[in-house]
Amino acid sequence: MWSLKKEKGVPVYVSIIELILSYIKNGDLLPGERLPSERKLANYFQVNRSTVVHALDELVSLGWIIRKQGSGTIVNEGKWGISTTPRTDWRRYLEQNAFAKVDPFTEQIEWLIKQSNEHVLDLYTGELPMDLIPSFSFPPLTWKHFLEEEQQDDLGYLPLRQSISHETEKDYGFLLPPESLLITSGAQQALFLILQVLLQSGDSVAIEDPSFLYALPIFQAAGIRLYGVKLDQEGINLESLEKVIRQHRIKMVMVNPSFQNPTGKTMTMRRRKALVALCQDYQIPILEDDVFAKLNFDSADQTPPLKKLDPENVLYIGSLSKILGSTTKIGWLSAPTSVNQQLAEARKMMDFSLSIFPQLLANLALTNADFPQNVVYLKQTLEQRGKAVFEVIDQMVEWEVTMPKGGFYIWAKWKQGNLRQKDWSIFLQEGLLIAPSFFFSEKQDSIRINFSRVDEAKLPIFKEKLLKITQKIRFDSNTM
């Protein structure tokens, strides 16, 4: 009876809910009848107990089952016969909600993070730890100061756009005019506006494989088809990209060429020029995500962005969130003026107004005398932590790893092929939270580690946990 059919793309807990509901509605489970224990259900379904608990909690909230102390979980007698009453099947509507489809592995990670357990080492969260976020002394500001600030138009706060333009010219030696910059509430809002204005449902987009874009639900919600293109040592493979362009009528190519999320790779200058030339030939725009731009470890080896190579055909996304923390929510998009005006108009129609408060604070940070020094210190600390984590992994023959040139992600590949579901669960059991490769691709052989969160005190803990996990996975593989 307790046999679960797992469907691709459907969260396991949803399948469990539907199975139990079908038994109740069909009379296989009678009112007042007791369900098997959570542990037994987890064993029947071959899932983690937390997944079963999630499903049962949902059924309790809907009123189909109740929990009685000492009696276990039973079918609610007051619900008997409800299936004969006409009602809207809201669950069927909600199943179409791309934003609600959370991977069970993600749910378990987020649950462990919320427990604030000292046993858990969180290298999954994609942001800097608090000890690395630069601190600035701001002049005293009054509420009236914000109310009187009048230098904001549809593109955003002008002084902030001027500061971003200045920083880009200082870093890369090319100008992004303030009128070409649209301030957004983080990089993802910039991406959302592009999907809404420049693309339409059914369009095809090429992305790197693996890529953080693979995990974002906004593409599915917008009806955009994603096609992954493999990476090699120089960046996105252009031979594969050209095949995808021809086969699927690609409308846009989206890349993260510097300190790529999740692999940490940096696209070579030769590959950047060739990518720009290829997309020019096919008249396809490039979306360049450059949110890690300032976190390069060697300032003398600063590879210019694609935007500098092709200002007219590259849409350029930047962000301060990777330096000032995710709560800052300040990003920007550089595009041709006509494009930015359309995007700004669309945002206004959607009522996605941008508060002056974070923009003014972001500008104060960028223009602060300590900003350059703080960024230098941040980069030095990140490089030290990155090298320490790299050396730990590199000493383990089971993993293949490369030291990135910037950012705060390191990518480690399991040399013996794909990891199984039971292997991934070992990471959770040992309290080492990482982002698995199946978040970013169909592959299941690698892990992404946020090394910024491994300070000197946590390094031995990280080493101990990864070594124990590696030994367990290797032992399980050898005993198969």
Automatic annotation (TrEMBL):
The record's section on InterPro entries has: Aminotransferase_I/II_large (IPR004839), HTH_trans_reg/aminotransferase (IPR051446), PyrdxlP-dep_Trfase (IPR015424), PyrdxlP-dep_Trfase_major (IPR015421), PyrdxlP-dep_Trfase_small (IPR015422), Tscrpt_reg_HTH_GntR (IPR000524), WH-like_DNA-bd_sf (IPR036388), WH_DNA-bd_sf (IPR036390)
Entry similarity comment:
In the C-terminal section; belongs to the class-I pyridoxal-phosphate-dependent aminotransferase family.
One Pfam match, given by its short name, reads GntR
Tell me what this protein is called: GntR family transcriptional regulator
Query: What would you give as a GO molecular function for this chain, any one?
Result: DNA binding
Q: Transcription: is it a keyword of this entry?
A: yes
Q: Which domain of life is it from?
A: Bacteria
Keyword terms of this UniProt record = Aminotransferase, DNA-binding, Pyridoxal phosphate, Transcription, Transcription regulation, Transferase
Native source species: Enterococcus silesiacus
